[in-house]
Design a protein that fits this description.
- With about 180 residues, the chain is α+β, with helices and mostly antiparallel strands.
- The chain has one domain: Gcn5-related N-acetyltransferase (GNAT) (Aminopeptidase, 3-Layer(aba) Sandwich), CATH 3.40.630.30.
- The protein contains five helices and eight strands, in the order ββαααβββαβαββ.
- It has helices at about 20-30, 35, 50-65, 110-125, 140-150, and strands spanning about 5-10, 10-15, 70-75, 80-90, 95-105, 130-135, 155-165, 170-180.
- The protein has an eight-stranded mixed β-sheet with strand order 1-2-3-4-5-6-8-7, sandwiched between helices.
- A hairpin with a 2-residue loop joins strand 1 and strand 2 (about 10-15).
- About 30% of the residues are buried.
- This is Ribosomal protein S5-alanine N-acetyltransferase.
- One of its GO terms (cellular component) is ribosome.
- Pfam families: Acetyltransf_3.
- Belongs to the acetyltransferase family. RimJ subfamily.
């Protein structure tokens, strides 16, 4: 994966997360705290600080170096306007990963999520050689489901009490895309 950013749409670019992003990540999460709260785990206050983000980045970059995660940021100039990752990368006969993403509350509905997911699909196939991507959404997250379906993901089922989101174990709709 290259450290250079790649154009997604308009002025938004995607690149691998950097250690120097801690302050900008904290700003992005603070700015989007209410927007993301229904879709993410309950976060400790430390998470919304530069120090908290620095610790998170170190963890993610360790997984990146180990080959089990690819953490990207979506940037508009120097401002982080979204996050995307491939996590749980498994090699061997599985060749699979989980896709996760979010877009800044002020940037939704502009095709950024769709462009980011298409980018991730391309990177998963051409750079990582993965066979399959999986994504999960809350049943009422229609916007994310539309993005996944446009990107060729198919719904494969419902996972009861799949993840602890917004303080409660919640069902998720599972999607997959077979890449080759």
């Amino acid at each position: 994966m290259t450290e250079n950013s790649i154009a997604l749409t308009g002025t938004v670019r995607v690149r691998v997360l950097h250690r120097s992003d801690a302050g900008r990540m904290a700003e992005a999460y603070l700015r989007n705290r209410e927007h993301l709260a229904p879709w993410e785990p309950v976060r400790a206050e430390e998470f919304f600080t530069a120090d908290g983000q620095a610790a998170s980045i170190e963890s993610k970059l360790g997984l990146f170096i180990a080959g089990s995660e690819v953490p990207w940021v979506l940037v508009d100039g120097s401002r982080i306007v979204g996050v995307m990752n491939l996590s749980g990368i498994v090699r061997g006969p599985f060749l699979s990963a989980h896709l996760g993403y979010w877009v800044d509350k002020d940037m939704t509905g502009q095709g950024i999520g769709s462009a980011a997911v298409e980018f991730a699909v391309g990177a998963a196939l051409t750079e990582l050689g993965l066979h399959r991507l999986q994504a999960a959404t809350l049943p009422h997250n229609a916007a994310s489901q539309r993005i996944l379906k446009r990107a060729g993901f198919e719904e494969i089922g419902l996972a009861p009490r799949y993840l602890r989101i917004a303080g409660a174990w919640q069902d998720h709709v599972l999607f997959q895309r077979i890449l080759f």
